[in-house]
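Bumping with the actual sequence this time:
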Amino acid sequence: MSATLFAVQTLNGLQLGILLFLIAAGLTLVFGVMDFINLAHGVQYMLGAYLAVAGYAITGTFWGAMLIALVGALVVGLLLEALIFRHLYDRDHLDQVLATFGVILFLNEAVKVIWGAAPLTLPMPDLLSGSIEIMDGLLYPVYRIALIVAGLAVAALLYVLVSKTRAGMLVRAGATNAPMVSALGVDIRRLFMLVFGFGTMLAGFAGILAAPILVVEPGMGDNLLILAFVVIVIGGIGSIRGAFLAALIVGLVDTLGRGFATDIAKLLLSPSAANDVGPAIASMLIYILMAGVLFFRPTGLFPVRGG
């Protein structure tokens, strides 16, 4: 286990954690404020990536593609909220799960019809191409560092918006007791719409950032959605601080586990057994972590009342 490999895997874990935070932040607000289970949140990540590819075809620049994709993700999210999701707010969770799963199937097929099933790519901006030397013998892509920095900047902005503004106060109050907020004269439906739209834009932003380093393909958000649910369970439903810290924890545990579980297993087992056991354990680590958190802290490590 070299220091260079450990540093690379740590940076990769932070990168995954940032993407998870951008998805989980909107998801935890939607779930915490609206008590609405939106399984289709992952397709907003996918749509952000596809809209960025389409925006690049129109503008020829990454930054123009980002602007188009952000606006497009917000518009699509608000349309889905107006046409489908707002009619499910007063339904039970099973209805919400079934309806939003149907939205996943529809949108996954829709992108195949519009863009085809073949994987697509988004060119990396020239400004952020190349690598920089982090330590002796370690070159790391500038774009991946920029992704981490962008995610941290968004986290700081969200902290200010949620903690220091009136709108954030209403969101925090809604996450704690939505009926009381409505009884005090706040248009809770409008608050729901704004929270939902902002959440979908954050997920779309994650898709935009991921597009230059991952392939853009149908269903690309499904696995990350599962990880995002793990994040909000560990962090605490409705807590932005919890989503941020838990996303970093999950990203690091998942990445470092997959990178070093086999090597650690070889300390206790034969090489052949370690090669079988290591990957299996690595794939379970975050779920073991979630189970432990649920056992000892059912409300999460950083519940909303503490955020």
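The tokens above came from a reply further down the thread. The chain has ten helices and two strands.
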